Amino acid sequence: MANLVLRKDLGKFLYCSSLLEERVAKAYEHTAKLVEDKLIGCLLGFIASDSLKHAECFKMIYEWLSSNMEVSFEVCKEVWGEIWKTLVMDAEKFLGKSAISTEELTSLINGLVRFESFVTEEYLTVLHIKLVELMVDEARINLDTFKTVFEWIIEDEKRHEQILKIIENILTKRENKSTSL
User: Fold this and answer.
1) Number of other residues whose CB lies within 10 A of the CB of residue 59
2) Angle 153-59-77 (CA atoms, 0-180°, nearest 5)?
């Protein structure tokens, strides 16, 4: 019975992670379309693409673990805590924008750097994946096939932070050039 409970908990955890990754992917994708600079748009699109892959992987593993279980938004808030709801809502705020100025983009990128480094790195990847591994070991659920996928997601998340720092540097250099003229 404990194995079944852990399997369901792991399924909820993965499903909620897939919802967050999906919302984040849409926010990055939308922002990439608003940006006039093609390089910055491409880099944001790169992150969006990765995040969408993460969402699909988490959802697929969830379905493999617990195909008959339904998970609601409220359950995800219980699984991840209040921060999950805040992150999802913040990601959805980006979708409401129809234009973005250079100042807004700079502010947005600064916020995304903090978002990726704090939440994604600490909670959604390192702690998340380690917790998943512990739950898998404890429940004796064989997810060896997916361990490599989890490691790739961790690598992607670290790369996202690096990409955002590159964008931040591009924007800073442009701002410095325009103020020195």
Assistant:
1) 17
2) 90
Quickly tell me which residue has 């591994």 as its tokens. Answer: 133
Which of 18-27, 50-59, 108-117 has the least mean pLDDT? Answer: 108-117
User: Residue 4's pLDDT is what?
Assistant: 66
Domain locations in the chain? 2-180
**Integer Cα distance of 89 and 60 in angstroms:** 24
* CATH assignment of 2-180, among 1.20.1260.10, 3.10.450.50, 1.10.3720.10, 3.40.50.1980: 1.20.1260.10
Split at pLDDT 50, 70, 90, the class of 166 is very high
Between 7 and 99, name the one with better pLDDT: 99
Q: What token pair was written down for 33?
A: 């379309």
Tokens standing for 9? Answer: 């908990």
Mean pLDDT of 56-67: 84
* Cα(150)–Cα(139) distance, integer angstroms: 18
